[in-house]
Amino acid sequence: MAHAKTADAPVAIVGAGVVGSAVAYALARRGVEAVVLEAEPEPGLAASGTNSGILHTGFDSTPGELETRLILRSGELRDAVLHDLAVPVLRCGAVMATNRETVEPIARIAERNGVEARVDPEGRLEIPGEAVTDPVAYTLGLAAAAEVRTSARVESIERRDGLLDLGLADGAHVTAGVAVNCAGLHADEVARLAGDESFEIYPRKGEFFVFDPPDGQPLDRILLPVPTKRTKGVLVFPTIDGKVVAGPTAHDGEDKADWSVRPEAHEAVLSKAREMLPALEGAEPVASYAGLRPAGRDTNYAIGPSRACPGLINVAAIRSTGLSASLGIAEHVVGLIEAHGVGLGADRAVHGTAVHNDGPWWQRTARHRGVAA
Fold first, then answer.
1. Each residue of 217-272: pLDDT tens digit?
2. Distance (Å, whole) CA 323 – CA 235
3. pLDDT per position as a tens digit, 209-228
4. Helix axis angle, 66-84 relative to 322-339, nearest 10°?
């Protein structure tokens, strides 16, 4: 009598960025061993390692939207996870300095979202809960909870005998009852392997410039511009290792392999950064880097089961708020995984150890991508 094939893992996760790693971590907390398939040599080498490292509170997010709900839920979960994984965090808060007429509507949004924010006597909006972390250490800490196979690019997805068979570039195969597509920039390509063409991803380039603290004075908070519907704008913020960073840009492109910093980005960023921090006048950056955010074409936070392939869950078009929303996204996705029949145990803490990077996190991907730093 023929026996049903046994899965290599109950869940396979495609992509070891911060979202995929957070899903693996959330599953580990519920007693589910997932295998994470990462195309790059290490986790977090793409958007997850080339952002601001800012942990946003969701103070300015549109109330009621899925993205907002998941950012807010992450805020509730985050402190315990940062502690358990020994991830560094700078709890510096943020300020938006403009005028009372502009910031009061944003303060009302923060109130609707349940986020502490106040307008000070000078008409500035203060958001004490905004913080900065090391996004690479955060991603690696989350990923440590699961089996991560690096240099494991998925090139085929087929459904066989009630399981999903994921074929890898090296000829190996991984079978799972459920596959979670967290492939970031390439999530649309992974979905198409399973016949799912329901969304399209394009790269939105964010360029950053790193400075030594002007006059040797460390920056004590995040400086925010007034956000728009498209972007949060150019920020000025401190890093865990004491540098000051200005950025990002928001340049829409088509080339998912172009990690270069454009020559024109320097003045575009610095002209806005100097308005918030005049001490940057005349300062020269010690490094620069670019991140490619996985923006969705006419969609945002495309999270849900694939209609084209039973057992495949897409977690795509997670743009610039992925770091901030990752824990909320993971909890939400674990619920979808459970609905696919994967049994979950009781929630338990998963402790990690501090992850020490080889040099500052903001240099890591620049070295890997060959970007000037």
1. 889 999 998 766 656 689 999 999 999 999 999 999 999 999 999 999 999 999 99
2. 16
3. 999 999 888 899 999 987 66
4. 100
| pLDDT tens digits, 300-338 | 999 999 999 999 999 999 988 999 999 999 999 999 999
Domains of the chain (ranges, CATH numbers): 9-369 (3.50.50.60)
Buried b (16+ CB within 10 A) or exposed e, 193-219: bbebeebbbbbbbbbbbbbeebeeeeb
Beta-carbon contacts of 360 under 8 Å, excluding residues fewer than 6 positions away, are 239, 241, 243
In the numeric block, which tokens belong to residue 74?
């992450």
Per-residue pLDDT tens digits for 7-61: 799 999 999 999 999 999 999 999 999 999 999 999 999 999 999 999 999 999 9
Q: What would the two tokens of residue 133 be?
A: 């972390």
- β-strands 302-305, 147-149 pairing: unpaired
Residue whose C-alpha is closest to residue 366's, from 208, 245, 203:
208
Q: Which residue, 314, 272, 268, 316, is CA-closest to 290?
A: 268
- Distance CA(322)–CA(153), nearest Å, equals 22
Whole-number average pLDDT of the chain: 93
Predicted TM-score (pTM) above 0.90: yes
In the numeric block, which tokens belong to residue 85? 């994984």
